[in-house]
Amino acid sequence: MDASGTVDSVGEGVEGHAVGEDVFGSVGKGYLGEGTLAEFTTVSAGTVTHKPSSFDHTVAAAIPTAGVTALNMADALQLAEGHSVVVVGATGGVGSYFVQLAARRGARIVAVCRGENADYARGLGAADVIDYAAGAVADAVRSRYPDGIDAVADMHGDAEQLAGLTEQVRSGGHVASVVGAADIEALGARGIEATNIQGRVTTASLDILSAMLEAGEFVAPEIRTYPLLNAGEALAAVGTSHVRGKLVVIVQ
Fold first, then answer.
1. E strand or H helix that includes residue 184
2. Residue 8 CB burial class (10 angstroms; 0-12, 13-18, ≥19)
3. Are 229 and 223 in contact (CB under 8 A)?
């Protein structure tokens, strides 16, 4: 869905964009297919924005859906200075942005990831790391934070795992999931505000992230690139659910 490139032509009635301009964003189509694994693609004017020269197309292509989802999640969790938030999937695409955005808001990040990614998570801003392969995550959170936590950001998991973690969330806390695992009604009955987040990309949200990146308020995640010919390998890597950072396919 995401891409960064140069405008080859502009549709009738489109304003604010010109041939030869560098842009990045998402296709903005309400269906799957006709995506961006191609030399040329069509995108909605409402889901792209101008790409500054300060970062390249590879970095820009890694931003849209993951970055906007992370931004929406940080807003939904209403994070503030001193809040503790457990981040499940902290080193993936969305997590790599979310950890940075949450840390910038003053939250204490408890990153849940594989042990080998601990240093990467700390480099993004995590204060504590839990290796999900070492035992039950909920038990580890309960042991380390017996007084409870303020929020859970769920980027990877299932409803059962998330339910176990939310037992440690204090009344008045927040839970957000990008995989639809938050039981909004049940959590609401406990005084916890829950949201299932979707990363709806807009020009406005891309402009916010672009300005933050230019200002050094976050950095690009670790990016691994593939030529278009090997796009299948990139998709297979995504299918393992163990990608650190982002994968970008380069059209040459």
1. helix 184-189
2. exposed
3. no
